[in-house]
Amino acid sequence: MLDFITTFSWGAVLQIVLIDILLGGDNAVVIGLACRNLPAPQRVRGVLWGTAGAIGLRVALTGFAVELLHVPLLKLVGGLLLLWIGVKLMIPAAANDEISIKSSGRLIDAIKTIIIADALMSLDNVIAIAAAAQAGAPEHRMILVIFGLLVSIPLVVWGSQIVLRLLDRFPIIITLGGALLGWISGGLVIHDPLIRHWPLLQTPLAGYGASVIGALFVVGVGYWLKRRKERRAQ
Fold first, then answer.
1. How far apart are alpha carbons 169 and 82 in whole angstroms?
2. Measuring CA to CA, which of 100, 113, 139, 208 is 20 to 30 A from 190?
3. Which tens digits make up the pLDDT trace of 178-234?
4. CB within 8 Å of 182: residues ≥ 6 apart
5. CA dist., res. 190 & res. 97, Å (int)
6. At 203, is the secondary structure helix, strand, or coil?
7. Which of 207, 201, 213 is nearest to 188 (CA)?
8. Is the dihedral of CA 218, 30, 52, 160 positive or negative?
């Protein structure tokens, strides 16, 4: 047990929690919208069962993604997708980018809506969390995914308003989150099995360099697109 605690990648857990908080705001909105027409006594049950189903489905999808990242080229593709997810995180959403969610007065319909909508909206979360789990030992990766999601989903669901206020008040958090995704992306790309054919890229220095380049790319491109969008809006 002591050996498990000392070898467990707590840094990867922190990354997973931060990623899910940063990328999971829409999921909290979905839960609220899906349950808004339920009778008051059923709302808590709708939130609990819908969230439980969403967690289970996301764990399964992320576990599948973790295994797929062992295939050559998929780490490279996943890393490039993660770069775009990081850039997209830094660009403010337009006022008309609203989520269309059908609300129901029946508990089972609300639960189904939450699970289906979460599955459709969680591609970015799944890719990012699977990438963050790569920092842990192979035998710990699914435990990292499950533990990280169990910690972060309640924070997103019940603390979403607090999280959103913090993000509005301290925009630097968004920048740091984008940089984190870029950092993970660079590490993912450099460790793709295809890249291993170049021994010079398998040194610790090359790994750190790729992570730094990924972080700088996301922050730089994200700021540029953000400023361009603001100029167009004006």
1. 25
2. 139
3. 888 889 888 888 877 777 677 777 787 888 898 899 999 999 999 998 888 888 877
4. 82, 83, 86, 211, 214, 215, 216, 217, 218, 219
5. 34
6. coil
7. 207
8. positive
Q: Which of 116, 86, 117 is nearest to 23 (CA)?
A: 86
Q: Which two tokens stand for residue 25?
A: 């705001």
The closest alpha carbon to 185, from 140, 132, 222, 226, belongs to 132
Look up tokens 């607090």; give the residue.
Answer: 162
Tell me, letter by letter, the H, E, C secondary structure of 46-111.
Answer: HHHHHHHHHHHHHHHHHHHHHHHCCCCCHHHHHHHHHHHHHHHHHCCCCCCCCCCCCCCCCHHHHH
Q: How many helices (H) and strands (E) does the chain have?
A: 11, 0
pLDDT band at 95 (very low <50, low <70, confident <90, very high): very low
Least Cα distance to 19 among 82, 70, 98 occurs for 82
